[in-house]
Amino acid sequence: MDSFPPYHDTNSQGDFIGVDPDMIKIMNQFQSKYEFVIVPTSARRRIEHFKDNRYDMYMSDQLVWGWQSQPVDTTDVYSYGGEKYVALAQDGRGQEFFDDFTHKNLAGVHGYHYGLANFINDPEVLENKYNMQLSATHEGNLLKVVNKRTDIAIVTQAYISHWLLLHPQYQGKLLISNKWDQQYNLVMIIRQGISPSKYELNALINDMQSQGLLAPLWKKYGINNSH
């Protein structure tokens, strides 16, 4: 598990936090046939670690984020999200600020795939072609915007909502785009031929959803799954 807040992250003590660790707890409590265990990885090395058989299942991901050539199956979509552009709110600045990125500095996260770059996550391409500064965290990028160290950050919408709840002093200081950099349909990526299969996981997710166990999780992290 790597840093993809609010889906998965670590706190200052090194504990795994977020939607996915919470969901894993629910999955382990709901059934006893399987025990799901979190394995550390990173956005940049998760596929390499998958090839090395360090883990068999990755949560909250998409095939287009680098998995197309791997021997994997996916569950049905169980969560929705997306990324928005965030700039500093200023007098006279509106949504037109996001119409043209020419001569603007962008902030992104190492290992992420962005729609404006056709999902290419090569750091050199992002830095040289798209003028994107790459860092380790969404929070660091939002603070760069606040402190006028970058023009635009690309941030997960659910993270923005959650972050503003935790830091209300920044309410009204950020201009958030109406348009998306990308919208995603999140699935679990599963190694082909393992147990549980995608069919078992689909049934497990559906059963947890029907019993009302997942709705509080989406609400806790500001995720809108009303599709």
User: Helices and strands, in N-to-C order?
Assistant: EEHHEEEEHEHEHEHH
Given the helix and strand composition, which structural class is it?
alpha+beta
Strand proportion: 15-25%
Please report the distance between the alpha carbons of the first and last residues.
Answer: 26 Å
The CATH topology annotation of the largest domain reads as D-Maltodextrin-Binding Protein, domain 2
Which second-level CATH architecture of the largest domain applies? 3-Layer(aba) Sandwich
User: Which term fits the overall shape?
Assistant: globular
Describe the structure.
The chain has 227 residues and is of the alpha+beta class. It has two domains: 9-79 and 184-220, D-Maltodextrin-Binding Protein, domain 2 (3-Layer(aba) Sandwich); 83-181, D-Maltodextrin-Binding Protein, domain 2 (3-Layer(aba) Sandwich), CATH 3.40.190. 28% of the residues lie in helices and 23% in strands. It is built from seven helices and nine strands, in the order ββααββββαβαβαβαα. It has helices spanning 19-30, 46-51, 123-129, 138-146, 157-166, 198-210, 215-220, and strands spanning 9-10, 16-17, 57-61, 72-74, 79-88, 106-109, 132-135, 152-156, 174-191. The strands form two sheets. Strands 3, 4, 5, 6, 7, 8 and 9 form a seven-stranded mixed sheet that branches. A two-stranded antiparallel ribbon has the order 1-2. A hairpin with a 5-residue loop joins β1 (9-10) and β2. The protein starts with 8 loop residues before the first strand and ends in a 7-residue tail after the last helix. The relative contact order is 0.21. The model has no long low-confidence stretch (mean pLDDT 93).
